[in-house]
Amino acid sequence: MSSHRVRRELSFFAMVLERLRLPTGRDGAVWLHRAATPALADFHRHRELESSLVVAGTARYLVDDRRYDLCPGTQVWLFPGEEHLLVDRSRDFELWIAVYRPTLVRRVATEPWSAGLRRRRSGGPASRTLRPGDARRSAGLYRRCRDLLDRPDLLHATLAVLMLEAWGLHVEPRGLIGIGHGEASKEGAAVHPAVRGVAEAVYRESEPRNLASLAAEAGLSPPHLSRLFRQQLGVPFARYRQRVQLERFLRSLKEDPADDLLALALAAGFGSYAQFHRVVRQEYGCSPRELKAGVAELKEDA
């Protein structure tokens, strides 16, 4: 894989690393997240309202203590303060993501039907699968906003339309431009507290712990926890932990690109360079040096 392609696939990674530090004077931002993007294992929350639309592939979202299954056409709303994690993506997964500043929400969501956008929590199911035609038209609005990121005067108006139209598709029989719902709102599946706790512990703790230690802390047997983790999050525990370690590596690399790859990999929790190389190939389809080149190019453009 060329460094140019790696750089392109790292676009979402840059946004998450910056913890949604949106440019001054912007009402929000829109980007396309692809399966090859790092930062998969990042539990995070932010003060911006967020909407997303799946355009290809499948994945699972862990939102607080519930899991949502994603497929093409699925629209998801994430409200300020809701902690979320995207897991178990297929290789062809693509997701449009839009974030809206609180100032935009307060300025635009003024009608009774849009009042739900001003909540601190969703207050109910926040996932719906749209009809194919509706999803294509909605994706066009996301794309239009993304293309206007360098035109804040036009971006603000288009973001407002996107936010209201996406919400209209969620709560109204027909959207603002006359397109209607697909499936009913989806209730997220409850996630066992032990699974949620282990997923967060792996991300939070810099020193890797084995499954037996985490299971003892959760009061479960290792086999039971392993089965439960894979069943509810759709990804084996070992692979999830490797993805967390990859994110640590990429964060360190972005902060100090001059550091030795082996030193960074060991500091991130990998046991050897061979293991690190194998995981990078498995997750991103490139070598560690190609991944480093992509991060370096991205940093130069920041």
Report on the architecture of this protein.
The chain starts with a helix and ends with a helix. Helix content is 47%, strand content 15%. Strand 3 (59-63) and strand 4 (66-70) form a beta hairpin. The relative contact order is 0.14. The protein is of the alpha+beta class. The chain is globular. The chain has a five-stranded antiparallel sheet. Helix 1 (3-9) crosses helix 12, helix 7 crosses helix 8 (222-233) and helix 9 (237-255) crosses helix 10. It folds into three domains: 3-171, Jelly Rolls; 193-234; 236-302, Arc Repressor Mutant, subunit A (Orthogonal Bundle), CATH 1.10.10. The chain has twelve helices and nine strands. The model is unreliable at 5-18, 173-182 and 298-302 (pLDDT under 50).
Brief synopsis:
The protein is α+β, with helices and mostly antiparallel strands and 302 residues long. It is built from 12 helices and 9 strands. It has 3 domains: 3-171, Jelly Rolls (Sandwich); 193-234; 236-302, Arc Repressor Mutant, subunit A, CATH 1.10.10.
